[in-house]
């Protein structure tokens, strides 16, 4: 085990560059998947004729596919139909599609968890269905959704490591390049990788707990 060689300044700088890519991909994917997930989850909850069923089929299909397959599809299959994406764009697209489906189910379940009596009371007070949904149901549901949504975001951050298969220069990709140079680098490099993932995900967990306690 060569700790000094593995954790040289150049290697740490290279790892930092990869971690920056990981955080960038995760951040963009989180924003996009949250927006799409809320829209799709709401559409499923609203039970709009035909549209809700189409969304349900899309969500359930994606949820039952492995993320790795979606990553391969966006990077290797789409160019066959004339849509060539860079590794970073393909990674964001795949993660967004997959996580949107997961979040849509969380949103739908959260909306369904609100007592029907509150909805009926809001409607009887003169609010429209849309007003009831966005001013009464959604705010309460979002509070209940915080823990599972943050857990899904943590999973998304970890799932960025799968993008190593399309040569995305993210954290794990750069780590592999370093320890491939010398077998004695493996343990120190993996220790750094584990530590960085733990720190970021633990911070997200603390934020989730604080939000949950504040809303309790």
TrEMBL record:
Membrane topology: Multi-pass membrane protein
Gene Ontology molecular-function annotations: transmembrane transporter activity
UniProt name for this protein: Glutamine ABC transporter membrane protein
InterPro entries on file: AA_ABC_transptr_permease_3TM, ArtM/GltK/GlnP/TcyL/YhdX-like, MetI-like, MetI-like_sf
GO cellular component: ATP-binding cassette (ABC) transporter complex
UniProtKB keywords: Amino-acid transport, Cell membrane, Membrane, Transmembrane, Transmembrane helix, Transport
Domain of life where this protein originates: Bacteria
GO-annotated biological processes: amino acid transport
Species of provenance: Neobacillus vireti LMG 21834
Presence of the UniProt keyword Cell membrane in the record: yes
